[in-house]
Design brief:
single chain, 501 residues, Serine Threonine Protein Phosphatase 5, Tetratricopeptide repeat, Rossmann fold, 3 domains, 6-stranded parallel sheet
């Protein structure tokens, strides 16, 4: 490798660390011109794409890197990471074993193998490989963090927190680990520490927060009367539905609130206009505000604990005219009316969530095992592809008696009105579950094994939603047992409705 190529690679690495992908790409292309068979150039081009979640293209480039240097343990380790992200776990493990063969003291390869095993659900084996990585590199903060994540999956929460504490003692600026701490603390009801550590999200990667940097951050609720405060939704639709409950108490302190939300929620949140000026998130006029706060920082400001969650329901309302349009289709029905949502959709723009989405969603054939319960009519409230399209194509084959209501659902206000016509909502962990809870509807939430912190640990109820009941997987990926419990309870509920007991 000539000196010019070395300089280009060094500068490209600098831009990669800053996530300046276009600049890194341009420099690596220059390096490729001068050194067209240099393995390290192809490897870094692959890393650049992988950091942008372009894993298929990254795989092609890492294979080029290995072609030019077949004994590169680092390249094989990178290949294992890419294959993990593509869900090709066996191939990933093979690549990492080759990496370890070529570089037996390369701690990162051992850590990466632990991550693959953890994602595959082999938690005990994963711990062994994290320990091997730590034995090679005792100050390996990321390995301690990953080991902590593995302990969480094994429900060994004290061990997990111990690993997180070691990780942040090694690297006090390790925001991802503080984030992991927050998720564990909040899931265990330790809100005092959890909300504080949850603020670490702003040190991970937050281009959205940058838009509001010129407005002072709201750091206290004292002397807020008559102050103009901008509250902005920062995460998913479900998060906005869950935490919009804080707008009213903020208003009651005298704040003049502008609440910036995703456009699809404007109609369903219309009732909040009694307490705020409701605008779409793309309205980026930032002049005239005294303070600003991201929505999910309000629980910290209100010092929310398990006993002080503002859970008076319903805190969202339904368009009565819209509800009346639907009611004739359900009047006179004697059976239990159950609305179903089994898939949270595919978010192409959020590849970092693909693995979680796979774990939280239920296949159509699996949810269809609920059919045939005497005294129960099922209504599909499923929106979003690929699930919506699959139902349209396969309903007659898989579940002919399911009433598909997708054509009635243009926005969340339509969904809310239709939910009001149901006796019960059954949903996976998606925005529809939060909507049902906010409306005060009975909702059974079908929850993956590695539950989100919002539902807490080892609970069948939710302090956020008094009408919710949680059915959590007892084994990773196992929906059969969950469906079995739901069938049993639905059968009992239908009998109660039939007998009037």
């Amino acid at each position: 490798m000539d000196l010019g190529t070395q300089i280009l690679i060094k500068n490209a690495l600098h831009h990669l660390q800053l996530k300046e992908f276009d600049k890194a790409h341009a420099l690596l292309n220059q390096a490729l011109v001068s050194s067209p068979s240099e393995s390290e150039v192809f490897r870094l081009m692959s890393v650049n794409l992988a950091l942008q979640f372009k894993f298929e293209d990254a795989l092609k480039l890492i294979d080029q890197a290995i072609k030019f240097d077949p004994s590169s343990g680092v390249a094989y380790s990178n290949r294992g990471n890419i294959l993990k992200e593509l869900g090709r776990h066996e191939e990933a493990l093979e690549a990492l074993d080759i990496a370890i063969k070529f570089l037996p003291t390369y701690a990162e390869a051992y850590n990466n193998k632990g991550n693959v095993l953890q994602e595959r659900g082999d938690y005990e084996d994963a711990l062994t490989w994290f320990d091997k990585a730590i034995s090679l590199q005792p100050n390996y903060a990321q390995a301690y963090n990953n080991k902590g994540n593995c302990f969480v999956k094994l429900q060994r929460y004290e061990d997990a927190m111990g690993c997180y504490n070691v990780s942040t003692s090694i690297d006090p600026q390790y925001a991802d680990c503080y984030w992991a701490k927050a998720a564990l603390q909040l899931s265990l009801g330790d809100f005092d520490n959890g909300w504080q550590n949850y603020e670490s999200r702003w040190f991970i990667d937050s281009p959205v927060a940058f838009l509001y940097r010129k407005i002072p951050r709201l750091e206290s609720l004292e002397d807020i009367a008559d102050k103009k405060v901008l509250i902005w939704a920062e995460q998913g639709l479900g998060d906005t539905l869950q935490f919009c409950r804080y707008i009213k108490p903020l208003f009651e302190l005298g704040a003049q609130i502008t609440f910036r939300v995703p456009a699809p929620l404007l109609n369903i949140l219309e009732g909040l206009t009694k307490f705020c000026n409701l605008v779409a998130i793309n309205d980026i006029k930032n002049d005239g505000f005294d303070f600003q706060s991201p929505l999910l920082s309000l629980p910290l400001l209100f010092k929310t604990d398990l006993d002080s969650i503002p859970n008076q329901i319903p805190y969202l309302g339904v368009n009565e005219a819209q509800k009346r349009l639907y009611e004739p289709d359900f009047s006179g029905k004697k059976n239990l009316r159950v609305g179903l949502i089994w898939n949270g959709g595919f978010r192409a723009e959020h590849p970092e969530l693909w693995a979680i989405n796979r774990r939280r969603n239920i296949e159509l054939d699996q949810i269809a095992e609920l059919q045939g319960i005497p005294g129960v009519d099922f209504y599909g409230l499923q929106k979003g592809d690929p699930a919506e399209s699959e139902l349209a194509a396969r309903k007659d084959q898989v579940w002919p008696d399911l009433v598909n209501c997708a054509h009635l659902l243009n926005d969340f206000a339509d969904t809310a009105a239709l939910m009001e016509c149901m006796d019960l909502i059954i949903s996976v962990d998606t925005s529809s579950a939060h909507l049902a809870g906010a409306l005060g509807k009975p909702v059974w939430m079908l929850n993956r094994y590695d539950s989100c912190w919002r539902w807490l640990r080892d609970r069948e109820d939710s302090p956020w939603y008094p009408t919710a009941k949680i059915y959590q997987q007892k084994q990773p990926g196992s929906w059969d047992e969950v469906i079995g419990r739901v069938r049993l309870d639905l059968n009992g509920l239908a009998q109660k409705k039939h007998t009037g007991v």
